[in-house]
Write a structure and sequence with these properties.
By secondary structure, the protein is mostly helical. The chain is built from ten helices and no strands. The protein has helices at 3-11, 33-49, 56-63, 68-74, 77-102, 107-118, 127-138, 143-167, 174-194, 201-219. Helix 5 runs parallel beside helix 8 and helix 6 crosses helix 10 (201-219).
């Protein structure tokens, strides 16, 4: 899957930014009702049973629809799962874009808002984390998923470079600092999933605040 294919997939997904980005769908309108149910059902099924054990019939049961709707809306299970991965990544990207538009000019506060956007309140349920980590592992062995992962990473990298250029303009290498932020965010996300009792979203905020000061200081001329 090329980057252009991924970007084309964004065209038909209507994105709505809610203040808390709760578990509302990114798709609106009656024509997308079946798609919404299938995306939600697939994500919940993946959370409960994992990637390899999830079947079309199971997804349909979780969604409360006929199995034939998977082919009707997505062409098959693989396309549906790829769309779930896009949808989950889109949620994070939309939150980050919204945070950049409303962020405080103070660097520390801006970075906290950036991290808060990546770790919304609904992550305490672990559902979306678990599914994203499942997709991350799948990208190691599945070429299509690896290409999709790369496209998602490129989009995130572009956003983070834009963030650094906007809020920390004196940094000599904005791409390098953006890479540092990306590594921190992905690392925190993984720890929130694997060690939820130790790494809560609240602890992420505290760690991000402390690490941000060190990173900005080290990156400044």
């Amino acid at each position: 899957m090329s980057k252009s294919t991924y970007m084309q997939g964004l065209v038909y997904r209507t994105v709505r930014v809610a203040s808390d980005m709760s578990d509302q769908s990114l798709l609106e309108g009656p024509t997308h009702a079946g798609r919404d149910k299938l995306l939600d059902g697939a994500i919940r099924c993946l959370n409960d049973h994992g990637l390899h054990n999830t079947t079309v019939r199971m997804i349909a049961e979780y969604a409360g629809v006929a199995p034939g709707l998977v082919r009707h809306h997505f062409g098959g299970k693989d396309n549906l799962l790829e769309e779930c991965f896009r949808w989950l990544n889109d949620r994070a990207m939309v939150r980050i874009e919204a945070a950049m538009e409303t962020a405080e000019r103070d660097v520390g506060l801006a970075v906290q808002q950036l991290f808060l956007a990546y770790f919304p309140s609904d992550t305490s349920e672990q559902v979306h984390m678990r599914v994203l980590v499942t997709f991350w592992s799948a990208s190691l062995s599945q070429e299509e998923m690896a290409e999709l992962q790369s496209a998602c990473y490129r989009r995130m990298d572009e956003l983070l470079v834009k963030f650094v250029d906007s809020f920390i303009p004196d940094v000599p290498d904005s791409a390098l600092l953006a890479d540092s932020f990306a590594a921190m965010m992905k690392g925190f996300w993984f720890r929130c999933y694997t060690e939820p009792q130790n790494m809560t979203p609240e602890r992420v905020m505290a760690a991000a605040s402390q690490m941000t000061g060190l990173l900005v200081k080290a990156s400044s001329p």
